[in-house]
Structures are given as C-alpha cells and as structure tokens.
C-alpha cells in the first residue's frame, strides 16, 4: 500500500450466516467464529488492513452485536476502531453511506475500502496488489469493485462482465454489466467466456465519489442516512445512528443502489483465493484435507469416510463409511446432510423459527458484555446456569418479579450487592437472593469468576430483569 493518504477500511458486519447453522446463529453469527483459522472471521478481515497505508477501521454492525464487535477488535489488538450501530438492518448501501458520512467529517478526501466481515481470502499479498490498483482508480472518481476469477460454475454468486482496460490504470477495467446469480447452465457459459468474474461485494471509492454518486442515483437513501448520522448519539465507545431516521431508509444493497446505475463503475480482476464462506460446502473446499479428502475439526473420529466435513464443538463425533457428508455438532444441535445440499440449511432454520425454537437464533451459551452464561438444567419452576464473569466486569444492578436465585461460587470471588449490603463471596461459598431483592454481581479479582446459579420461581425468562443501573447502557 502507498504510505500517502491512508485507506479507511469499512467492515460491514450485519449478516447472520444462516447457511452455517448450527454454529452461526443470529445471536452469535459466523463472523465472530473461528472457521478457517484460530482467529474469528472478523479478526481475519480486520487483519488484512493493518499497518502503513491503513487508518483505523470503521465497523458497522447491529446493536445486539456491539460488544461482540468491540471485543473482537480488542482481542485482535486493533486500536481506534469506530463501531457504528445500525438500529435496524437496511442492507449494505445505508451501512457504507453512514460510515462515509462519518469519515467525511474529518477526512472528506479519504479512500474507503468496503468489505464484508465474513469472507475468506487466502492470498493477502495478491489482495494488497489488487487494492493498490483499485485505490489508484478510485482516486480518479471511479466506483471500483473486485472481481474474483471463477474456479467453478458457481450458482451462489453474482457475476461481473469485464470491459476494456482503463487508460493509465493498468489492471483496472470498465465494468460492462452485472449478472444475477445464474442457473447451472448459464454459470457454465459465463465461466467459459473468460470475460466474467464473481462479484465479491468488495468496493473501493473516495468519500466524495460515494456521496456524489448516491446523491445522483439514490438521493432518498442519502437523505435518510444523512439525518441518521446528524442525529446520532455516542454510547460508551459506540456510535448509535438515529433509529427513526435510519428506519425510514430504503432497504437496498450498494449493488442495486449504485453499482448497477453509475457510469463510473470499474472492476479489478483478482485471483486471491476468495470465498464468501456461505455454506458448509465452502468450508470443506477451504479446509485442510486428510488423504481421503476429509476435513475434521474438534473431537472427531473418522472410519472409512471420504470427502466429508465433520466439526464437533462438544461431544466426541464418529463418522463411519459416509461419503460427501457434512456433520456439525454443537452443544444443543446436530446437522447431518449431503454436501450437495449445503444451500438448503436455511430451510431447516426457517422451520425452527416457524416452530419458535430458540435453537434457530441462539446458542446454549449466551454472551453478554460482562461475560457469558449457559443453561445446564431446566425443569418445572427451576433452572441451573453456569455464569462466568471476567476480572473487573459486573452485571447490572437489577431485580426480578418472578424468581429467586441462589449463587454458589466455584472459582474466583464475587462481590455481591444485596438490598444495600455488600458481601464478598469466596470459592465454595454461597448466597441467597430472595424474590424482589435488588442485587448485583461483580468480579473484583484477577481470575475469571465462575458460579452456579440456581433459579426458582413461576417464570424464569430472561425478560424478567428490571435493570436499575447498568455499566453498559442497557435498559
């Protein structure tokens, strides 16, 4: 990257990754999981835009994931990241425009690099070489896309037809047209033509170009987002867009709002080992394989299996004599299917949602800004949970109308507020919190606090929490 005028990475983290259920769910989607390495997808993405030539990233996510996104940046050692919160999902055009308007306040000539939080790229040096080409084209007023050289007639991606080379910009081309996700026959014809590339969804443009082109082609989007940014609120380290203004914005992708309408569209062909990691089949293709073509992750035993993807995040999982299968095991769900049916996982999730099953949207382990909890046992009028609180963190000051709680500390120490008194509860000690009492839990120590919570009462739902005070600004 050039060391002049740093590029601002904008990471869009609004997806839920339905086709990677049961690992990816709405409460903890695929971008926050380590799926292709020991780092999460969003950490991998942010890591591609570090060092000379790059400014701190802007991350756009929904408000439910704000602490996850911030913690992921912290764990990756990324300082100065701005986390912008969407009150409702409105697709990629409003999201990138909100980031652009914020950047414009201090750097109106900045170059933005828009990318999804959940894509895999195997050749980062080749990516940076393509980015140099894209940045040069963007500085001439172009709206630049990255076109990925297809390796197969993929029907899950849109395609871009490449036009003539741009004078004075080696490696950049006019973008002739977009092709929607094709049927198999059309996909084969597009790949054979040699003129069509996969649409990666990555863009590069200057702030000024994006705003001017949106004013020309989607003024209603610009008007709504401009109002949402103007009336934003600062919440801890987060930037909250105005809910009413943002909700009034059309739900539209940047492809439809701008790329397919602008006369400034350009494309940089690239061969960088890109995948949108949109299915378990894609993860099989990306994974390191044994001599039989299997990809295995976790506590897995394979016997006579061929070309399978097997992942266990919990119990030992044995697969015997299967070919071309996907088996994914979590603490509360199992998925088993043929690899060719990878796109049909969404149908399973839709059925679970229709049945109002919590497995469709949430894991047994639920993350909160102060740590996490997981349900161990649930019965008639009682529930047992494990709660883990990192050092220095504390829960809200709260009370319940329908349940009492008993806390048993099994590791670390707990500072407990109970109706005005403060008590230190150590390992192997317990405390009782009667129904209706005002209470708070805090970890004052240097190691994680782990306790077992036994709830009893007529209603044990998470919505029976009245927060009186909260460090994290939750109501």
CATH fold node name of the largest domain: Spore Coat Polysaccharide Biosynthesis Protein SpsA, Chain A
CATH class of the largest domain: Alpha Beta
Q: Show unreliable segments.
A: none
The domain tally reads 3
Which features would summarize this protein structure in a list?
single chain; 475 residues; alpha+beta; Spore Coat Polysaccharide Biosynthesis Protein SpsA, Chain A; Jelly Rolls; six-stranded antiparallel beta sheet
Q: Mind sketching the topology for me?
A:
Elements: E1 7-13, H1 41-47, E2 58-62, H2 66-75, E3 82-86, H3 92-104, E4 111-116, E5 120-121, H4 124-138, E6 143-148, E7 159-165, E8 173-179, H5 184-193, E9 196-206, H6 207-217, H7 219-230, E10 233-235, E11 238-240, H8 243-247, H9 254-259, E12 265-270, E13 274-275, H10 280-286, E14 295-303, E15 309-320, E16 325-329, E17 334-338, H11 345-354, E18 365-368, E19 371-379, E20 382-389, E21 397-399, E22 403-411, E23 414-418, E24 421-425, E25 430-433, E26 439-442, E27 449-457, E28 466-469
Helix pairs in contact: 3-6, 3-7, 6-7
If you had to describe this structure to a student in words, what would you say it looks like?
- It holds the Pfam family NTP_transferase.
- This is mannose-1-phosphate guanylyltransferase.
- GO terms for molecular function: GTP binding; isomerase activity; mannose-1-phosphate guanylyltransferase (GTP) activity.
- Keywords: GTP-binding, Isomerase, Nucleotide-binding, Nucleotidyltransferase, Transferase.
- The chain has about 475 residues and is of the alpha+beta class.
- It folds into three domains: about 5-275, Spore Coat Polysaccharide Biosynthesis Protein SpsA, Chain A (Alpha-Beta Complex); about 280-355, no CATH class; about 365-470, Jelly Rolls, CATH 2.60.120.10.
- It has helices spanning about 40-45, 65-75, 90-105, 125-140, 185-195, 205-215, 220-230, 245, 255-260, 280-285, 345-355; strands at about 5-15, 60, 80-85, 110-115, 120, 145-150, 160-165, 175-180, 195-205, 235, 240, 265-270, 275, 295-305, 310-320, 325-330, 335-340, 365-370, 370-380, 380-390, 395-400, 405-410, 415-420, 420-425, 430-435, 440, 450-455, 465-470.
- The strands form six sheets. A six-stranded antiparallel sheet has the order 18-19-20-27-22-25, with no helix packed on it. It has a five-stranded mixed beta barrel with strand order 6-9-7-8-12. Strands 14-15-16-17 form a four-stranded mixed sheet.
- Helix 1 links the parallel strand 1 and strand 2 (about 60).
């Amino acid at each position: 990257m050039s060391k002049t005028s740093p590029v601002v990475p904008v990471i869009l983290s609004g997806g839920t990754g339905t086709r990677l259920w049961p690992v990816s769910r709405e409460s903890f989607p695929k971008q926050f999981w380590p799926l292709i390495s020991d780092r999460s997808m969003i950490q991998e993405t942010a890591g591609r835009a570090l060092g000379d030539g790059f400014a701190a990233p802007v991350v756009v996510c929904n408000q439910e994931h704000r602490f996850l996104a911030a913690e992921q940046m912290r764990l990756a050692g990324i300082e100065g990241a701005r986390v912008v919160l969407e009150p409702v999902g409105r697709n990629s055009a409003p999201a990138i425009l909100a980031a652009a308007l914020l950047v414009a306040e201090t750097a109106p000539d900045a170059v933005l690099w828009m990318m999804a939080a959940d894509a895999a790229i195997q050749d980062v040096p080749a990516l940076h070489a393509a980015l140099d080409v894209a940045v040069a084209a963007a500085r001439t007023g172009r709206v630049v896309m990255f076109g990925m050289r297809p390796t197969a007639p993929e029907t899950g991606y849109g395609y871009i037809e490449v036009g003539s080379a741009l004078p004075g910009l080696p490696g950049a081309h006019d973008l002739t047209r977009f092709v929607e996700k094709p049927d198999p026959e059309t996909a084969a014809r597009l790949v054979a033509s040699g003129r069509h590339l996969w649409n990666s969804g990555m863009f590069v443009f200057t702030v000024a170009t994006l705003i001017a082109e949106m004013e020309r082609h989607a003024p209603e989007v610009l008007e709504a987002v401009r109002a949402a940014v103007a009336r934003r609120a600062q919440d801890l380290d987060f930037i909250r867009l105005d809910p009413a203004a943002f909700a009034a914005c059309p739900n539209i992708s940047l492809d439809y709002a701008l790329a397919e309408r602008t006369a400034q569209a350009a494309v940089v062909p690239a061969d960088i080992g890109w995948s949108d990691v949109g299915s378990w089949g894609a993860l099989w293709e990306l994974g390191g394989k044994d001599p039989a073509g299997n990809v295995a992750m976790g506590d897995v035993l394979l016997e006579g299996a061929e070309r399978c993807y097997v992942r266990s995040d919990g119990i030992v999982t044995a697969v015997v004599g299967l070919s071309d299968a996907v088996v994914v095991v979590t603490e509360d769900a199992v998925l088993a299917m043929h690899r060719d049916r990878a796109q049909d996982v969404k149908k399973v999730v839709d059925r679970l949602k229709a049945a109002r099953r919590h497995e469709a949207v949430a894991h047994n382990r639920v993350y909160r800004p102060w740590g996490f909890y997981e349900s161990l046992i649930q019965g008639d009028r009682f529930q047992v949970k494990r709660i883990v609180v990192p050092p220095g963190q504390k829960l809200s000051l709260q009370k319940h109308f329908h349940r009492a709680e008993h806390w048993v500390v099994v590791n670390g120490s707990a500072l407990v507020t109970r109706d005005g008194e403060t008590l230190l509860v150590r390992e192997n000690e317990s405390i009782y919190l009667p129904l209706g009492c005002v209470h708070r839990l805090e970890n004052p120590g240097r190691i994680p606090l782990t306790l077992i919570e036994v709830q009893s009462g007529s209603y044990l739902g998470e919505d029976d929490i009245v927060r009186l005070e909260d460090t994290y600004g939750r109501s």
